[in-house]
Amino acid sequence: MSSNWTVLLDGTSLPDRSLIGGKAWSIARMRGMDLPVPPAFVITTAACNAYLAQGDFPEGLEAEIEAGLAWLNDATGRHFGGADKPLLLSVRSGAAISMPGMMDTVLNLGIDDAAESALATESGLPDFARDTHRRFLELYASIVLKMPVELDHDADPAGWRAQVDVPATPRECLTGAVRAVFDSWNTRRAKKYREHNGIPHDMGTAVTIQAMVFGNLDDRSGTGVLFSRNPLTGEASPYGEYLPRAQGEDVVSGKFTPLPLDAMRDLDPAAHAALLDATARLEREHRDMQDIEFTVQSGTLYLLQARSAKRAPDAAVRAAVEMVGEELIDIDQALSRVSPEQVRALLLPRLGTGAQDAAIVAQGEGACPGVACGTVVTDPDEAERRAAAGEAVILVRATTSPDDIHGMIAAKAVVTEQGGSTSHAAVVSRALGRPCVVGVGDGRGPQPGALVTVDGETGRVYAGELPVEMPDEAGDSRLAQLIIWARERSPVRVLRPADAAGLDGVIDIDALWSGGEPDELSALLHGASAARGVTLANPDTARIARAQGVQTIVTEPVLPALLALLGEAA
């Protein structure tokens, strides 16, 4: 199909990620590897940007969507909008740079009364067909109509559609869903996430339109998320969760607590074995830790997406060092995969002795390691407001959604009552580097106004502010290895104070600069050959020193500065 606005994801080519987005790129890559992926086509980021600029679909897009639907009909042997063997669709966002949970998705699009009847007859499972119909109406109401509803499971479709005024035809529903995905690029939550992560606002999102597979079909169906390595620790073993008789939104929403991945092996060993085989292939192909979304339909595995996994700081360091030893990546790649901010997070205070005797006010699953103290707030707007005033706050929610991103950014840690380690709260907290505890139980979260300490490794929330200890980068073998590699490549010598005795001509920044404007620091450092101070452990400050020609920095810890300087050299 020759087009300006859409691309078929048939595995015969690998279009540019900036044009089709990360999700579609991964589908094209997996289909090219002959992995089991439902067929799909994608509306490009160029179409999104044209839509946002003019407020409507660009000329020719509707015709190209029709051609893409015809191709999907042929590829699946089903028919979108048909009353016999109906084709249902997943309509998903996908930016070139991963923004997990920030934009919108509509599942089961294409179902109506006739399609429900046809699915019930074809499958012999009327409850499945009815459940799929309800799921579509709830998601369409929330995402497209902006009127979230929870429909009575025991009601009939006529009653549901009296509450949810969806368009008359599946084709009109598809147009509404595509518009909603385009519009989600400029939502408050998406903008906040991009600003926090330095992602440009002009990239736009693609829209992937894919044939549905059904994890809610029967007892041999389900859905899950798998990491090729543990995203909390970096351990080189598969880590994930599985939810039987469910669809993907059930897992990421955090409203349901999935089972460990081992449960999938017990329920369907063949699908589990196929998943582990595909996971190993994808990690070797991408040479990076993978985050894989999958569905099992009546015992058959389907892969929906594979991307580089968001990982906790501990996992980033361990995976980078061990992948060098496994000859998956080289040293330069390893150094590029650990950010100065991740190392700084690792070197933040940890719980000291005596914590084991403190009162535990909540216990859940550790979803992102780290320790943080603060006052409990339950509203993301309040968290943002109080943090801006200089207060340390802990955001506690029943479960988080993309609309909570500003509060998660502002908070020192996140706690949820529901969800597991692949829920929205867990994934986004790892991306932000926030300690996170999930699944403490409905109504069992710490109370608003309480001062608590959150331990994102053990999954415990303690009463009060507990004593902490400072980690030592030199005492950690993996951090020490990164220091050796980084020093061999750094354009600036970075020394600990203990190693800089007798060094002459060193400017003491801590004594001369009070942390004001960067221009003041630049003026102080201009022309200096050496500088010392704890301030220089900050990546931004180390970069300023490099820009002013400083050749030796004396600070502690040294690794954040070294990694920042390597980034400047690159």
TrEMBL record:
Pfam family, one: PEP-utilizers
The enzyme's E.C. designation: 2.7.9.1
Domain PEP-utilising enzyme mobile, residue spans: 391-459
Kinase is among the record's keywords: yes
PANTHER family from the UniProt entry: PHOSPHOENOLPYRUVATE DIKINASE-RELATED, PYRUVATE, PHOSPHATE DIKINASE 1, CHLOROPLASTIC
Superkingdom classification of source: Bacteria
Protein name: Pyruvate, phosphate dikinase
GO MF terms, alphabetically ordered: ATP binding; kinase activity; pyruvate, phosphate dikinase activity
Residue ranges of domain Pyruvate phosphate dikinase AMP/ATP-binding in the record: 54-258, 270-325
SUPFAM superfamilies hit by this protein: Glutathione synthetase ATP-binding domain-like, Phosphohistidine domain
InterPro entries: ATP_grasp_subdomain_1, PEP-util_enz_mobile_dom, PEP_util_AS, Phosphohistidine_dom_sf, PPDK_AMP/ATP-bd, Pyruvate_phosphate_dikinase
Alphabetically ordered keywords of this record: Kinase, Pyruvate, Transferase
Catalytic EC class: transferase
